[in-house]
Amino acid sequence: MRPISEIKANYRLRIVSSGEDGFAAYINHPCYKPTAIAVIASWGGGWEHVSVSLARRCPTWEEMCMVKDIFWGEEECVVQFHPPRSEYVNRHPYCLHLWKKIGEEYETPPKEYVG
């Protein structure tokens, strides 16, 4: 994850609360007014995590890519997990999550398989 000071300095975020291992903010972007993208970023427990939500719909692929680029570098791999149904947790109907295990690199499929 990018240093939090860099994220706060270089991106148009409106921080609404913060703590020692995370913060909640809205992304202030001209393309998303009046609908703000809410994010909660955390880095506790060995994981970097950003939840991404909107009030009336799920985030699009493009919005998730934008958030990924705000919080992580271009060459960092982060994931969206699809856990077993027995482990589902749904606290907000329009929220998706990005995750990265701190200090780990994910193996990815060959590029020609992904497209």
Describe this structure in a few short sentences.
With 115 residues, the chain is an alpha+beta fold.
Descriptive labels:
five-stranded antiparallel beta sheet; alpha+beta; 115 residues; single chain
Your description of this structure?
- The chain is of the alpha+beta class.
- It has one domain.
- 19% of the residues lie in helices and 29% in strands.
- A five-stranded antiparallel sheet has the order 1-2-3-4-5, with helices on one face.
- The longest helix has 11 residues.
- The two termini are 25 Å apart.
- The model has no long low-confidence stretch (mean pLDDT 89).
Cα gyration radius (Å)? 14 Å
Helix-residue proportion: 10-25%
Count of the domains:
1
Helix and strand pattern: HEEEEHEH
- What is the number of helices? 3
Identify the overall geometry. Answer: globular
Note the gap between the termini: 25 Å
Protein topology:
Layout: H1 4-10, E1 13-19, E2 22-27, E3 37-42, E4 47-53, H2 61-71, E5 95-101, H3 111-114
Antiparallel strand pairs: 1-2, 2-3, 3-4, 4-5
